[in-house]
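Reminder: ligand-aware prediction takes two inputs, not one.
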Amino acid sequence: MGFEDWQSLSEAAHVPDADTVCVWWLVLDGVPETVWTRWPSLLSPEERDRAARFVFERDRRSYTAAHALLRALLHRMFDLPPPAWRFVNGPHGKPDIDPAHGLPAVRFNISHTHGAVACAMAMGHDIGVDIECAERGGHPLEIAGAYFAPSEQALLRATSPASQRDLFFRLWTLKEAYVKARGEGLALPLDRFAFRPDDPVTISFAESCADDADDWLFRTLRPSAGHVLSLAVRHGTRNRVAVRSRPMTHSAIDRLIRTEVSVTSQRDAGWQGSDARERRGL
Ligand SMILES: CC(C)(COP(=O)(O)OP(=O)(O)OC[C@H]1O[C@@H](n2cnc3c(N)ncnc32)[C@H](O)[C@@H]1OP(=O)(O)O)[C@@H](O)C(=O)NCCC(=O)NCCS
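Here is what comes back for the chain with coenzyme A:
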């Protein structure tokens, strides 16, 4: 998919309405070297410091790309320079946009793994995303035995060896997306809830995990042959939700940054960008 013209770029960076959930991803294969010297300038000084501390270049690049993607999208949607965005962390570290920016209730979540990154957004709904490289090591049954619910372990054991890895990564990313949507991270033990990766995906809870399965919508996508991505959204009327998934390219992200934000186009895209500017006194 290309974002060569204004309309498709505008469409790609569309601010979600209350019944729309957006997920963007970027596969890092083939991103040119010049990008890795430019994109750190999109990050905050703290993020640049953190990026500099990674031991492995591939981790630095995934981290940089995920934060560049988020900041470029926010810039394009709400007209504030990428490095100027500030975030506040919840009790278990989940970041949200700093309320001082005075924006509507945009919620987001990012994920980075070897060779790919993802960003998801929803308006006023808890959202979590997880992307994993399905080529990484580890034995599915052993990891599942340590972390997954008994019913998920049984599903894996009943699956043919050829399909086991695929099922394992679908379950893993769903579980991570769910704990990330709740904002609890590892504070929520992963065996307290169980997925059935049918169509639609369903979740059930142990007694010690208070939640309502009817409030949740899940999706699993394949950004590349080697990557699995899952999305979790808490939405009271999930049947109304439309999920928009957008593969991004490095040049599309660069265009998000370079393109002047037009109030008219933002209005066309369904969000009154001028109101936010007025609220911020711009
Ligand atoms: C943060 C956590 C929720 C996800 O970690 P992860 O899968 O390694 O990392 P991801 O790339 O998907 O997500 C990281 C991003 O999530 C966000 N994040 C941090 N804490 C979060 C939380 N409590 N809830 C939601 N999102 C969070 C941050 O934006 C973070 O990005 P940053 O570190 O670059 O700032 C982690 O605490 C976790 O649950 N790890 C589980 C790992 C595990 O043991 N899995 C077992 C197999 S099922």
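Residues 63, 66, 92-95, 109-112, 128, 130, 143, 147, 172, 175-176, 179-180, 183, 185-186, 190 surround coenzyme A (CB under 6 Å). Residues 17 and 183 are 21 Å apart (CA to CA). We will return to this case in the review session.
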